[in-house]
Amino acid sequence: MGKEQTVEGKRGRRKLKRIGKKVGNVVVIMQAISVVLAVTICVSMYNSLVRSMQEKICTNGTNLLAYELSRVSEGDDLNEVLDGLKKRQGCEFTIFEGDTRAYSTVTKNGERVVGTQLASDLVDIVLKQGQSYVGEAEILDETYLCSYVPTKGADGQVNGLIFAGISIAEAEQETTKIINYATVISVAVIIACIIFLTGYLKKRVSGPLGKITQAAERLEKGELGLADGKQVQIGVRSNDEIGLLGEIFEETIGSLRAYIGEISEVLGAIAKGDLTQETRQNYTGDFLAIKMSLDSILGALNQTMGQFAASASHVSDGADQVSASAQTLAQGATEQASAVTEISTTIADISAGARETSDAAAEAGQFVNQAGAQLGISIENVKELSVSMNRISEESKQISTIIATIENIAFQINILSLNAAVEAARAGAAGRGFAVVAEEISSLASKSDEAAKATKELIESSAATIVEGGKAMNRVTEALDRTGELAGNVTVKMEQVVDAVEKQTVAMEQVSTGVEQISAVVQNNSATSQECAAASEELSSQSSMLMELISSFRLRNGRR
Question: Does residue 505 carry a pLDDT above 50?
């Protein structure tokens, strides 16, 4: 199943047994034990089952024999009946007359065994007690599993018995044959399993583990393929733990190869003064600390050398700039003095203009206050007009009441004229003059009624017009109120403008004072610039020496 492997390393030279052989031996032993147990259990169950079936066959045989005897008529050959039952049931049959065998299928030396006596113990059970018996019995020095059933005559008394039995020796021979067949098949199965397990374990366990072991030995020796440029391949591919272990070993060796190769490359570049290198692999586990440390070293070196280079460059540039600035500063100081004088004159003009603006803003504020006062008077007049319009509306309502009274009076006069005309008609000729007067009164009442209605309509129209005028007057009053508020806001803003202009005037005076101070500072700058020029020349010389030292290193971002 597997040969021993010799391993030589730090642990010394020793022979190892393949794990596939160990696993195969364990599996074979367990399978052999399980087969033996299975065969033993099956044989025991089979014997018990066979015994039960044989007893049932014997019992069924005596029942069938009793049935056949009930159908036998005189002149039938009972031996033929027993032979037929033996062929059908596969067991021996005997008919007893009393305790003597009269008919039987049991033979000895080719002759039927008849005329022999039944054993005394069976006689007591079957003939005397009239009970059936199922069990073992000795017949011609041979043990049978049998069934004895008593038979009765016409008077109901036991006059004999019938027998059905199977030779236990013959049954055991059949059982032995079956056990032998089962044993042979089991051994063949065990051998087949051993052969299959040997090949399977060698292919799936021993072979892959041997490849993984060889890879582990190379890893122990530090052989990762960096020197010859060859990748370490294990070549184990299976969907189980061994395949997973092989893949993990390959990935581990590949990761170590990549890690160590990159670290060697980075350290070699640092030794040559090239600080532009950086780690590109994705480090995991404890290797992440190595990556972080290496990146920190590179970063720190780049930062330090970069700061040196930047500082030297800045110092050199600063020295040149200081020198140029010192010359420019002296020239600029004269120009600044002239410019300061011009600024001072301009500020004086601006201050005068701000004063004039302040006066004009104050005057405009007065005009706005006067306009606000006149607007207030207009608002009061409009409010008084609105009150008058409301009074006219109330008086128009009273006139409407009077007109209604006049209409009522005209109606009453008309009724009286009608009554007078009726009375004049009753009086005849004597009442004609009175009838003329009544007619005139009725005409006058009608005209009064018409005039009252016309007057009412005019008054109602005037009242409606007055109401509309009152509403318009209210809107005018509201607009004037809003206009008054806006005029007040304008007055406040004008006051703020005057204050701001006054503050600007004061600020311009302060600016004038500051310009004079600037003029003094400009004079001092001219002297200082000469001193800076001398110091910058010395600083430029020192920075050039520092730049020469730093230029031997290569830094990231293309710097040197």
Answer: yes
pLDDT tens for 508-525 read 677 767 766 776 776 676
* Shared domain check, 158 and 36: yes
Q: Helix-strand-coil percent breakdown of the chain, rounded to 5?
A: 75, 10, 15
Say how far apart CA 389 and CA 380 lie, in whole Å: 14
Both 396 and 544 in a single domain? yes
Record the pTM: 0.34
Provide the mean pLDDT of the chain: 75
Each residue's pLDDT tens digit, 261-320: 777 777 877 777 776 767 777 777 777 787 778 778 877 777 777 776 777 677 677 767
Phi, psi of 229 (to 5 degrees): 75, 15
Last residue of a domain, one of 171, 199, 227: 199
Per-residue pLDDT tens for 45-77? 766 777 788 889 889 989 998 888 888 887 788
Answer with the one of 162, 179, 199 that is the final residue of a domain.
199
What's CA 117's distance to the chain center, in Å?
95
Looking at residues 486-495, what average pLDDT do you find? 72
**Residue 185 C-beta-side C-alpha neighbours within 13 Å:** 8
Question: Which residue range(s) make up the domain with 34?
Answer: 16-199
Tokens of 471: 């509403």
Radius of gyration from C-alpha coordinates of the chain: 72
User: Tell me, what DSSP letter sits at residue 453?
Assistant: H
Helix, strand or coil, per DSSP, at residue 555 = coil
